[in-house]
Amino acid sequence: MSIILKAAKREIVGKKSKQLRREAIVPGNLQGRKIENINIQLAERDLQVAIKAAGTTNIIDLDIDGTVHEVLLREVIRTTSQQHYIHVEFYAPDMNTPVKTSVPVKATGESPLVTSGGILVTPQSNLELSALPKALPAFIEIDISVLQKFSDVITVASLPAIEGVDFLSPAGTALAYIAETRATRSASATDADAETAATAE
Fold this sequence. Notes:
The structure is a single chain. The protein is α+β, with helices and mostly antiparallel strands. It folds into two domains: 3-92, CATH 2.40.240.10; 99-200, RNA Polymerase Alpha Subunit, Chain A, domain 2 (Beta Complex). The chain contains four helices and 13 strands. Strands 1-3-2-6-5-4 form a six-stranded mixed beta barrel. It has a four-stranded mixed β-sheet with strand order 10-7-9-12, with no helix packed on it. The longest helix has 19 residues, at 182-200. Belongs to the bacterial ribosomal protein bL25 family. CTC subfamily. This is Large ribosomal subunit protein bL25.
């Protein structure tokens, strides 16, 4: 399903842009290799909906006064309260040229180590990769059910291949592991003592 976002060319620039924000209109701009920089403005509510649907990896059909550009969200600046937008920047990529970007990592599945009291650790919240604009994944899924021992680690190298996507983060980058806790160490010690006693009998 395409994500459509309507905008208009912006004449107000600089400090005067505060006037737009008071009217719930967000100033922004569109850049791209094959287009000139365009100053734009758009309704804050429409922008909020589009960002929620597209994130940084899904193509947005940005309709500027009737002319549609296929774009990616490049940067959004929010107020300190995070409740409103100050400025937004879009980028119109060459659809036939791979782009480099950062994609969120999403843990799925269950590990028995977590059930027994271990703590899931995900050192990297994002992963660097390269793909054609329309092949960019919304997130990278890591299945933690493969973590059966505390020594197990999911790395970039252990991820399944995704057609058209090249991982740029180092192969040895740790993405997930289960950390031991006092409770799990105590349980392991108890199990070991029970096993020793059983063997002695």
